[in-house]
Write a structure and sequence with these properties.
Distance between the termini: 23 Å
Largest sheet: 8 strands, antiparallel, barrel
Order of helices and strands: EEEEEEHEHEEEEHE
Strand content: over 45%
Helix content: 10-25%
Strand order of the largest sheet: 1-4-5-7-8-9-10-12
Number of helices: 3
Number of strands: 12
Structural class: mainly beta
Radius of gyration: 18 Å
Length: 181
């Protein structure tokens, strides 16, 4: 697959928020992301679920083992169509809102998420893609309720929300060509 852009994984981030006991919100992230945008205009983001980082080792392990079941499902993959011509038409500093149907393949279940992305050109070769409003991922859509219930019991919590807001800021770099028309 030829890439029009590759993900700058060091700068990019993806967070998700868990809420327990109704009012305690905690932000978690995945430390390992990869992906790119193909010349055919398909953006792919691969999330290494083993890299979940909640700031607490025992909780990371529980999420890996009981929620994501990373022994079976080690990654989640997001696929989004991208209009490369429209992106190419952006001036530096200019941004656009794009309505997309993203496919999230998580826990063995492919689901479609309709959302709005903000795409901004930062330089001749660099673009930034972020969600316009939080993506609301429902555990039931990805067969994750049992895992959440297990986590709830292990942590002796009354409630863990089963709708999880996700936020991301992704930076993509075009490969540098020495001979530029």
């Amino acid at each position: 697959m030829k890439l029009a852009y590759s993900l700058d994984a060091t700068a990019s981030f993806l967070n998700f928020v868990s809420s327990k006991k109704t009012h305690v919100l905690e932000t978690h992230r995945f430390d390992v992301l990869s992906g790119g945008i193909s010349t055919a205009g398909e953006a792919q983001l691969v999330i290494d679920l083993n890299s979940v980082n909640t700031g607490i080792d025992v909780r990371n392990g529980r999420m890996r083992d009981y929620l994501f079941e990373t022994a079976t499902y080690s990654v989640a993959t997001v696929t989004v169509p991208v209009d490369l011509a429209a992106v190419a038409g952006l001036a530096v500093g200019e941004d656009m809102l794009v309505d997309v149907s993203a496919t999230l393949d998580l826990h063995g279940v492919p689901g479609v998420i309709d959302t709005q992305l903000n795409v901004q050109r930062l330089s001749a070769t660099r673009i930034m893609v972020q969600n316009q409003s939080p993506l609301l991922i429902k555990a039931a859509d990805y067969s994750l309720e049992a895992g959440i219930e297990t986590l709830r019991n292990l942590a002796s919590l009354n409630v863990i929300s089963t709708t999880v807001p996700v936020d991301f800021v992704l930076f993509y770099e075009a490969p540098h060509h020495h001979h530029h028309h």
